[in-house]
Structure formats: structure tokens, C-alpha cells
Design goal:
Elements (H helix, E strand, L loop, with lengths): L29 E2 L5 E3 L2 H24 L4 H7 L14 H17 L3 H16 L28 H19 L3 H17 L13 H12 L2 H13 L31 H17 L3 H17 L31 H18 L2 H15 L17 E2 L28 H11 L6 E4 L2 E4 L5 E6 L5 E8 L6 E6 L5 E9 L6 E5 L2 E5 L2 E9 L4 E5 L4 E4 L11 E6 L2 E6 L12 E3 L6 E3 L2 E8 L23 E8 L11 E2 L2 E2 L2
Parallel strand pairs: 5-9
Antiparallel strand pairs: 1-4, 2-6, 3-21, 4-5, 6-7, 7-8, 8-13, 9-12, 10-11, 10-13, 14-15, 15-16, 15-22, 16-20, 16-21, 17-19, 18-19, 19-20
Length: about 650
């Protein structure tokens, strides 16, 4: 079979404001899509540009090099299982790349990227079997039978990422070959796992939110019904028990009966995201409330200061309440993406600035930490305390997941680079929403916003800001229309003393949401001033691992100390911070006052609490800090976020 991969002309913008990763049919807020919001520069604009110009091609090269793309060719040509490469879930990385490409093409059309996208889709489509099944690790002669390992096989997980890629394409360009492939896969799933089929679930949640979004795209209710079946079955012990326990894949307790997010952190957030989607589409307020309560408890008791989740390496899982050791933080990048997905859905369903706060914290301090400035190496996990100087991985070799203490170009399990890519490509769709009476800004970046309210009122806004470098956000009304509507701005929970300037009046505003309702005319300005000065943060005293320590935040960014900035190559574990002196900024750098205590070189690690007689007092020094998302960009180092207080 031959496939036409010639790129046709594409529209300059997405029609009808499309390009929404999440498009609920109801809810408190309506998300604005890539056709309505465009990030024009700043912190996130730079990340999007690197993603488009470097990361997508980097991922494509490694998928080709490792043979994961070639698996589809091998399937189509009858060369499986001999020629298959990669783990059982390797197909999903191709699908996440396609999703990232689809969002990027919706954000900024590009003929070469369109050609590459179509070429990959053709290879995927050629591997699809007549009944719609599409997986390169199962089902063919010499391979394990289909669905013979639902606990670990990831077949439905891979299907979910395929469907999400197709949803991205449908919402940015309309029906194409990938959308047809995904429909056939989804129809196969419904036929195989419906009421009269296999009464089980996938060990890794992902198909659930994907099926709901496909329902939203196509209107085919069987997809929503299948998502409901999967969500209701989970927690009824339909999967075999494993060494980590059934909570690992959330099959221990039904979704609506759970009290907290638990088990494998990515699985948990993907599952909860699907649950929110189902609750919204079926008006199941009880289910929505249950997931919101589980999430709130996880935020309050199982989340790192960076927004990262997952403190257990052995199963990439949530730990118990308040068990948040910084030096053993797993905080997988993919779990950060899952957290963003979940909190965005809860924000759309319920409103509440705290959800946008968590999205912001996680984006700046987990998702943005993973890629290098060049966009070609990544963190899989995100420790908050590096005791041993980092090592530089081989730039030409994949490494085991979580094995590198510096960003690596590729992993044997390379889910995080592709997750970062699809998130950055679609990031503008997480910035703003609308309701019947106005527009809400949730994430601050230089941007253009153009939308229409349900009654036809046109809203055009230009956002100018250097956030988070400084806290000034200026929103200017653009366009030609004059109309009365409400502009809502998020005031982060940390922004005590924020100031709003509107109609020539300055007023202090509290954390939460501030609204300006008036008749807006072109040229009108609303100015929000957020206090981004660095400040000390302490943990709940039940987090024993950081008792007696402080962290420093500047605006939404968590800061850290890195050994490359310390005198004489001192280790970060010798730092002690004087919290009686506030953090200071000079020449764009933040520092705190403290001392550096040399580590004793003894054969016993415990010592008297009092200093020996005549011991000299450590000298007071300025300790430079850098944004956590920038650590390990200047060579090998030790690093810590939580610093012991004097």
C-alpha cells in the first residue's frame, strides 16, 4: 500500500478555537484552544520554540534509531517478533510524538513537520490488523496472545495514547488517516471489552480519558460507555495481585470509594483524569466530589514543594502521608504531566484558583525541569537533593530510567521526553478559559487571546509580562469592539500583598481570583502586580525528612543551592541558613545568608550536639541560589532544595 505524505496547505489558525486537549461538554469554565490563545514569548514561549525546533526532531531520531518506529514496519511486513525492539509499551512513544506534532502543527503550521507527521502515520496505519487491533508486542505468530497480560502488557495504555494523538489531530486539522486508525482501534476495544467481552481493565490507566475525549470529538456514545465500564471495573480486583499490591494499579478500591491518590503516580493521575471526564459527561456529582477530595488530600499530604508526586522508587508510587524524603524523591516527570492533566480538569469542572496554582507549580518546577535548555536531554525523575556529584551520561546512548543524575538523551523507558513534548506543544490551551460572562487568565505569559462569548460578545486581549522574572502582568483590551464583560485574574496563593490597578485605582487583592467587570473598550488596561520577591518556606512539621529545614521560593519558582556556586567546591550538605536574614536579590541572583560546615571525616556518624571546646565558629557567607528548573545545566554538581536552618 502506498500513502500520500505530501503536505497540503494548512490554515494559519485553528478554526473555531480548536486545539483543546480537554473539551468537556459542560462545567464551570470553558477552555480556550490553540486558535484562541497564542503564547508570544517569555519563559514559556522559549520552551515552546525549543520544543518545536529541537525536541520533536530529537525524539523522532531516537525512535528511529532504537527501532521503536521500525516495529510498525516489521509488523506490516511480517517480521515480528524477531525484529521487534523496545519494551512492551514502546508503541506509545510514537503516539505521543504524533500527538505533540499535531498540537505543534495547530500552534504553528509547518510543511516539513506536516510531511514527517504524515509519514509516521502511514507506517502506523500499515500495521493495523483488519479488526482494528494495533500493537507490535502481542498477537502475532511467535508472540504472546492478545490481552494475555493485562497487568503489565500495556495494550490498552498504548491504544489510549494513539486515541489522544488522533483527538489532537481532529481538533487541529479535522479527520485524517490517524483519526480513522484511532476510530477502528476504539471500535475494537468496545467490541472486545464491552458488557459481553473481557470484563477487566488495563494495568496502566490511559484508555479511559482517551475514550471520553474521542466521544467528545465524534459524538459516538459507545466510547463514553466503554470508558464508564473501565472506570467502574477498576478497584473490584479484576487484575491479578502483584508484589506491590493491587493499589499499584488502583485495583484495590473502587474509584468513587477511595480517599486519596495512591499507588503508581502516573497511573493514579491518568485514572483520576478519566474519572473527572466521565463525571462531567454523565453529571455524576458524587464521583466528581470523590475525586476532588482524593486529589486534595494527596496535595496536602503527598506532594513535594515542587508539585512533584511519587516518593517511592521501587514502584514509582505515592508514599504514605507526609513521607516526602527529598533525597529519595522520585517525582517522575510523567507524573507531573499527569498532575497537570488532573488539576486542569478539576479547574474546568469546579473552578477554584488552587487548581491553577498547582498547575503552575508543577509546570515550573517539574515539567520545565526535565528538559535541558537545548531540549535534547531529559530527567526521568526529579530529586530534590543530590548528594553525589552528578555524572554526565553518554550523549549517544540510552540509559536506564532514573539511572542518570544528569539529564540523558534517551531512556530504555522513554515516556518522559514525549510527555514533555506534547505538553509544551499544547501549553497555550492551559492558559485561559471563558464562561458566559467573561474570560479568566490562569497562567501568565506574553500572549494574544481572541475569543467570543456565547452571546456573541468579542473579547480580544494582549498580555504583556516578564513573569516570573518580575510579577507585573499587563492585560490590554485589543480589537475594535466595546462591550461589558468580566476579566478574572488568578492571584497565586503565595502572592500576599498583590496589587490590582484598574480604572486608575490601585487596590490590594488577596490570593484567589480577582474580577474586573466593566464596559471594556480597545486600549483599556488592567495591571496585576504580584510580589515575586524570594521568601522562606517551611514544611508541615509532620514531614519529618525536612524538619528544621527551609526552602526558598521566588514567585512560582522553587530555588536550590548547587555546589558549583559554593566556595572551595564545598558540598551542599554543609550549608546552614540564617533565617533571621531574609533572602536578597542582587543583579538578578538570589542568595541567603548562612555558613558552610565541613563534613566530619570520622568512622562514626553520630556526634555530641555541642561543639568541642575551642572550635572556631564557621564564617558567615552568602549562599547563591538558582531556580530548581535550571540545576545541572553547568556541569556536575551536588544540589539541595531543603536547607538546614541555623
Amino acid at each position: 500500500m502506498t500513502h500520500d505524505t505530501t503536505a497540503p496547505p494548512r490554515p494559519a489558525t485553528v478554526p473555531d478555537g480548536g486545539g483543546r486537549p480537554v473539551a468537556p461538554s459542560s462545567g464551570r469554565l470553558r477552555p480556550l484552544g490553540l486558535g484562541e490563545v497564542r503564547i508570544t514569548g517569555g519563559f514559556w514561549g522559549r520552551r515552546q520554540e525549543v520544543n518545536a525546533t529541537a525536541t520533536l526532531a530529537h525524539i523522532e531520531r531516537w525512535l528511529e534509531r532504537e527501532g521503536w518506529l521500525g516495529n510498525f514496519d516489521a509488523a506490516a511486513e511480517g517480521r515480528l517478533p524477531e525484529d521487534r525492539r523496545g519494551r512492551e509499551f514502546a508503541d506509545s512513544e510514537t503516539y505521543k510524538l504524533l500527538e505533540a506534532m499535531a498540537w505543534e502543527l495547530g500552534r504553528a503550521p509547518d510543511a516539513d513537520l506536516e510531511r514527517r507527521y504524515r509519514a509516521i502515520v502511514a507506517r502506523v496505519a500499515a500495521a493495523q490488523e483488519p479488526d482494528g487491533y494495533l500493537h507490535t508486542h502481542f498477537g502475532r505468530p511467535g508472540q504472546a496472545p492478545r490481552y494475555s497480560d493485562l497487568e503489565w502488557g500495556h495494550e490498552l495504555y498504548c491504544f489510549g495514547h494513539l486515541v489522544q494523538a488522533a483527538v489532537a489531530r481532529a481538533r487541529t486539522a479535522g479527520e485524517d488517516e490517524l483519526v480513522g486508525v484511532a476510530r477502528r482501534v476504539a471500535d475494537h476495544v468496545c467490541a472486545t471489552f464491552g458488557d459481553d467481552g473481557i470484563r477487566s481493565v488495563c494495568g496502566h490507566a490511559e484508555i479511559e480519558p482517551a475514550l471520553v475525549e474521542l466521544y467528545r470529538v465524534t459524538g459516538e456514545r459507545r466510547y463514553l460507555e466503554q470508558a464508564r465500564l473501565f472506570l467502574e471495573r477498576r478497584g473490584t480486583q479484576v487484575l491479578d495481585d502483584v508484589e506491590f499490591g493491587r493499589s499499584y494499579f488502583q485495583d484495590d478500591v473502587p474509584l468513587r470509594d477511595a480517599t486519596v491518590l495512591r499507588g503508581h503516580a502516573v497511573r493514579a493521575t491518568y485514572l483520576a483524569s478519566g474519572g473527572v471526564d466521565l463525571a462531567v459527561e454523565t453529571a455524576d456529582d458524587a464521583l466528581l466530589a470523590a475525586i476532588a477530595a482524593q486529589t486534595a488530600r494527596a496535595v496536602a499530604r503527598r506532594t513535594y514543594v515542587t508539585g512533584g508526586i511519587g516518593s517511592r522508587h521501587q514502584d514509582e508510587a505515592f508514599g504514605d502521608d507526609f513521607v516526602l524524603p527529598p533525597d529519595r524523591a522520585y517525582s517522575e516527570t510523567c507524573a507531573g504531566v499527569g498532575s497537570v492533566m488532573l488539576h486542569w480538569r478539576l479547574l474546568l469542572a469546579q473552578g477554584g484558583a488552587h487548581h491553577a496554582d498547582l498547575v503552575e507549580r508543577t509546570l515550573y518546577n517539574v515539567v520545565a525541569t526535565s528538559p535541558s535548555p537545548q531540549g535534547t536531554s531529559f530527567y526521568y525523575t526529579n530529586t530534590l537533593h543530590q548528594r553525589v556529584p552528578t555524572t554526565v551520561p553518554d550523549a549517544d546512548r540510552a540509559v536506564p530510567r532514573a539511572a542518570s543524575s544528569m539529564r540523558a538523551p534517551w531512556f530504555a523507558v522513554s515516556c518522559c521526553p514525549t510527555n514533555v513534548a506534547r505538553t509544551f506543544a499544547s501549553l497555550a490551551a492551559y492558559a485561559a478559559t471563558a464562561d458566559d460572562d467573561g474570560v479568566q487568565l490562569h497562567q501568565y505569559a506574553p500572549a494574544e487571546i481572541r475569543t467570543t462569548l456565547p452571546d456573541g460578545r468579542a473579547v480580544a486581549l494582549d498580555v504583556a509580562t516578564r513573569y516570573p522574572e518580575d510579577g507585573v502582568v499587563v492585560v490590554t483590551v485589543a480589537g475594535e469592539a466595546t462591550a461589558t464583560w468580566t476579566l478574572s485574574l488568578r492571584v497565586p496563593a503565595w502572592a500576599h500583598g498583590a496589587v490590582l490597578v484598574a480604572d486608575g485605582e490601585r487596590s490590594e487583592v488577596a490570593p484567589g481570583t480577582v474580577e474586573v467587570r466593566r464596559e471594556f473598550a480597545p486600549g483599556d488596561e488592567v495591571r496585576l502586580e504580584l510580589p515575586v520577591e524570594p521568601r522562606f518556606v517551611v514544611a508541615d512539621p509532620r514531614v519529618d525528612a525536612v524538619r528544621g529545614c527551609v526552602a526558598v521560593q521566588r514567585g512560582p519558582e522553587v530555588l536550590c543551592a548547587e555546589s558549583v556556586d559554593l566556595p572551595g567546591g564545598a558540598h551542599v550538605d554543609g550549608l546552614r541558613v540564617d533565617t533571621s536574614a531574609a533572602p536578597v536579590e542582587r543583579d538578578g541572583r538570589t542568595s541567603v545568608r548562612g555558613t558552610v560546615v565541613p563534613a566530619p571525616d570520622d568512622d562514626w556518624p553520630y556526634h555530641d550536639a555541642s561543639a568541642p571546646p575551642g572550635a572556631p565558629a564557621p564564617a558567615t557567607v552568602e549562599i547563591p541560589l538558582v531556580p530548581y528548573h535550571d540545576w545541572a545545566t553547568r556541569g556536575p554538581s551536588t544540589m539541595r532544595v531543603w536547607l538546614p536552618a541555623l
